[in-house]
Design a protein that fits this description.
With 148 residues, the protein is mainly beta. The longest helix has 15 residues. Helix content is 14%, strand content 39%. It is built from two helices and eight strands; from the N terminus they run ααββββββββ. It has one domain: Beta Barrel (Lipocalin). It comes from Niastella caeni. This is Lipocalin-like domain-containing protein. Keywords: Signal.
Length: 148
């Protein structure tokens, strides 16, 4: 009787499949700095968290049409360049540069303008953060979501 696969053949194929499915030892998870500085970020949405639930509700989104194409590039040298691209909101400078640094185990970013940004999510494609803004006599939480 003809057997197309013997035990030895099966074990050889199984071993080869197992070895190719293993993750390489040199595949390392990207650092938070790598994730932040790899590409430019664009607004998806931002707004004031008026009900203070940590979620940006539809009625809280305040992004303007002229801001949709704005980009933000965190550089490895500690600079952040924000570009007010084609759809300009103001007649001011097209680009502004700030210094930035991680703090608190890379869960926060502090800008040279004094703004403190708390990182909620940072992946290869999404950067969600919160910051606070003085709104008259009270403080309002701002939620911002960026994508590549």
């Amino acid at each position: 009787m003809y057997k197309p696969f013997t035990k030895a053949t099966f074990l050889l194929l199984f071993s080869a499949a197992s070895l190719t499915a293993c993750k390489k030892d040199n595949d390392k998870e990207k650092s938070r700095k790598d994730l932040l500085t790899e590409k430019e970020w664009k607004y998806v949405e931002y707004g004031r968290d008026t009900d203070n639930d940590g979620i940006l509700d539809k009625e809280e989104v305040k992004i303007e049409a002229c801001e949709v194409d704005d980009t933000f590039k965190f550089n490895t040298d500690g600079t952040l360049v924000s570009h007010d691209n084609t759809a300009r909101c103001t007649s001011g400078d097209e680009a502004e540069t700030y210094n930035w640094a991680f703090q608190k185990n890379e869960t926060e970013i502090v800008l040279s303008s004094g703004r403190l940004i708390k990182i909620k999510t940072l992946t290869e494609s999404t950067f969600e953060c919160t910051s606070e803004m003085l709104d008259g006599s009270s403080t309002t939480k701002i939620i911002t979501i960026f994508k590549h």
